[in-house]
Amino acid sequence: MRDMDPRLVRSRPEPDRPYPPGESEFRTDLERIRFASALSRLADVTQVVTSIATSGVVHNRLTHTIKVTGVARAIAVRLLSTQDPSQLHDLGGLDHVVVQAAATAHDLGHPPFGHLGERVLDRLARERFGLADGFEGNAQTFRVLTELEVLGPSDQGLNLTAATRAAVLKYPWACYHYPDPHPTEWPIPPRGAGHSRGKGAAKFSAYIIDLPQMLDALSAFPDLPPGRQTLECSVMDLADDIAYSLHDVDDFHRSGVLQFSPVSGEFRSWENGRAEFADCDDDHLTKARRRPGAGLERLRRRLQSRDSWIFDEEIFATAVQTVGDEFVDGVLATPYDGSMAADRAISGFTSRWIDHLISSVQLNAQPAVRAGFVSMYAQAWHEVSVLKFVNQYFILDRPDLAMLQRGQEQTVEHLVLALDDWLSDRIDSSRAPRRLLDLVHAATIGYTTVAKEHPEWLSGDVSDAELARMGRGRGIIDFVSGLTDAQTIAFAARLSGATGMLWSGSL
After folding, report:
1. What are the DSSP calls for 320-361, one per residue?
2. Beta bridge partners of residue 161, listed in sequence order
3. Which of 121, 133, 233, 360 is 20–30 Å from 18 (CA)?
4. DSSP-assigned letter for residue 362
5. Can you give the residue ranges of every domain in the chain?
6. In DSSP terms, which residues pair with 376 in a beta bridge?
7. pLDDT per residue as tens digits for the range 432-490
8. 170 near 138, Cβ under 8 Å?
């Protein structure tokens, strides 16, 4: 019977629904995510820069999500048509609708201003509120799906199937405690589990408060090794990498930000001076800073150190040459002027490369620790690494972008601290935004439950006052991370008395 399949089990029982042939419970998951307010919010959440920062049209988190979903579905359909169904079943199962649902949901937890907002919320969560696992966008996505979104008058979370919940667990461990031994202690940590938050994992997919939901989702996959993504999650994760590697360089070429001369200089200098760069020690390379070619050499060494399971010197050099020929010389060499010819050049490149990267996807029944059940051939993997380097080095590291981001960081910090001060005011705290009060209440109940059922997750006994403080902190973080860019700016201005506009939207 259908309800005996553990992949279909939901957090809460629901009435059976009739489905036409070819449809399933997973279609319900996908539609619930599509209609969630958290997805609509992504239309005004930064991908790299806000839409007003450049004259060109740039991706936001929603358009990024749409493209990731398209790529993910294409990969899933290709695997379903080319791979042995019994092998896909043995690896936990592959359903293209589950993959689409996971891709649609994968960025729901991203806060205002993208990764900048993530960093400041993480710091404040740990330092201001004593939340050991801070803030993490992937963990926030899982929390949105399982706790913060509402399905009906009395429901919390979207009550998705176990397969869909597990498919968003890109980093299927907690910051601390689970699994044991923790991935940060493994001889070779999985991708994302390196230290950057004290002793905890840099990336993870569930806060301690939501760990029971993670365990429940993963229980549908008893043969899945600890720390391993499901097959469907691996497809979604790979699609995210492919889409990200292409659409940001597309954006900034169209905007005129990505210039031919410095990018070409970087590529040709590394190719011509490859032997000389290889002889440089790490200190000398660090001091070289923005010397043409030094950035690619640092990338080469980082890949060699972290991903020796796939890295190859000659394949890396070929990838640099290929990206240099096809993107730098083939696209950037002609300045974008808005003409149809210019659009054809960049659109043609993007289309060809998406097809190329999707066709390079292969199934790995016994993947390396830092890989998933699906990956790209080595050549394509190196090419994606080089394309992502272009985005990081020539866009994200720009001083003008850094200046804007520092201002955005101060806006987020001001809003969090102002809300905390407001909730500390015993006389006036009851007039705080209703949703904020609801989120604080829900988080406090969550931490109280964890303290009773799993005190070891909180590192021992925690007083009622500490639990209340943690609940307030998590509730504030939940509230701010669920705002759009514009709401964040408006709310911060309002709380500083910097605006005279009062009736500009509900709280």
Report:
1. HHHHIIIIIIIIITS---S-HHHHHHHHHHHHHHHHHHHHTE
2. 10
3. 233
4. E
5. 2-231, 234-400, 404-495
6. 361
7. 999 999 999 999 999 999 999 999 999 778 899 999 999 999 999 999 999 999 999 99
8. yes
State the pTM of this model: 0.93
In angstroms, the CA 357 to CA 355 distance is 6
In the chain, DSSP finds a helix count (H) and a strand count (E) of: 21, 4
Give the C-alpha separation, 258 to 354, whole Å.
Answer: 20
User: What are the b/e assignments for 442-461, b being 16+ CB within 10 Å?
Assistant: bbbebbbebbeeeeebbeee
> If residue 197 lies in a helix (H) or strand (E), which one and from where to where?
strand 195-197
Give the model's confidence band at 402: pLDDT under 50 very low, under 70 low, under 90 confident, else very high: confident
Res. 1 pLDDT band, cuts 50 70 90: very low
Rounded to the nearest angstrom, the gap between the alpha carbon of residue 501 and the centroid of all alpha carbons in its chain is 34
pLDDT at 502: 59
Give Cβ neighbours of residue 392 (< 8 Å, ≥ 6 apart).
none
- CA–CA distance, 224 with 167 (Å, rounded to integer): 12
Cα–Cα distance for residue pair 477/468, rounded to 1 Å: 14
449 vs 464: CA distance, rounded Å: 12
* 348 CB neighbour count, 10 Å cutoff: 12
Lowest pLDDT segment from 113-117, 274-278, 372-376: 113-117
Confidence of residue 500 (pLDDT cuts 50, 70, 90): low
Retrieve residue 73's tokens: 């579905």
Q: Report whether CATH 1.10.3210.10 matches the domain 2-231.
A: yes
How many of the other CB atoms lie within 10 Å of CB of 431? 10
3-state DSSP assignment of residue 198: coil
Tokens 């609509």, located at residue: 40
Return the percentage of the chain with pLDDT > 70, whole number.
94
